[in-house]
Amino acid sequence: MGEPRLRDFEAPRIRISASGDGAITLAGAVSTRQARELAELVARKVEGVVTVRDDVRTDAELTTQLRSRLDADARTRRLTKDSVVFQGTAELRGTATYDAQLVARNMAEAIDGVRGVVNYMQLATSAGVSDKPRAA
Q1: What is the dihedral of CA 13, 52, 2, 41, to 10 degrees?
Q2: Torsion sign (Cα): 39, 42, 47, 51
Q3: d(CA 120, CA 118)
Q4: Phi, psi (5° rounding) for residue 29?
Q5: Do strands 51-54 and 84-86 pair parallel, antiparallel, or not at all (unpaired)?
Q6: What pTM value is reported for the model?
Q7: Which residues, listed in sequence order, are joined to residue 17 by a DSSP beta bridge?
Q8: Cβ–Cβ < 8 Å for 88, 104
Q9: DSSP letters along the chain, please?
Q10: What angle do helix axes 98-109 and 59-71 make, rounded to 10 degrees?
Q11: Which of 56, 66, 73, 122 has the smallest number of CB atoms closer than 10 Å to its CB?
Q12: Cα→Cα distances 73→82, 87, 103, 134, Å
């Protein structure tokens, strides 16, 4: 896309497919609703384009999906509140066991539009184990 406001960062995250009848589909993800609307506007201006299907999602929508997936699994529920998607990268935050961290990472990677995952999680020693010392 030749639009300067999209070209450097947003355009690489948008996938474009076209059919022979002038219909195109935009998919992938962008940072904001404004970027999504701009991408659709640019696509509509292309000569020969008759219809545009906009399947592009924003980071806010991806964050909602990520949090929903994390909340649905007891192992990753504690990560729900603080985990976000920012500029297409899922940032996993909170405290979880190693196994739960792997599950959370796989969940995030499976979301269409997420282009990377960063682990900011703290390692919990084990699920349900208190850090308080035992009385002798």
Answers
A1: -110
A2: positive
A3: 6
A4: -150, 155
A5: unpaired
A6: 0.79
A7: 25
A8: no
A9: ---HHHHTTTGGGEEEEE-TTSEEEEEEEESSHHHHHHHHHHHHTSTT--EEEE--EEHHHHHHHHHHHHHTSTTTGGGTTT-EEETTEEEEEEEE-HHHHHHHHHHHHTSTT--EEEEEEEEPSSTT--SSPPP-
A10: 140
A11: 122
A12: 15, 25, 9, 30
Q: Going residue by residue through the chain (136 aa), what tens digit of pLDDT does each one get? A: 467 777 666 778 888 999 889 999 999 889 889 989 999 999 999 999 999 999 999 999 999 999 999 999 999 999 999 999 998 899 999 999 999 999 999 999 999 889 899 999 999 986 554 444 445 4
Structure token pair of residue 67: 């949090």
Q: Is the dihedral of CA 72, 31, 88, 50 positive or negative?
A: positive
* Residues forming beta bridges with residue 48, ordered by sequence position: none
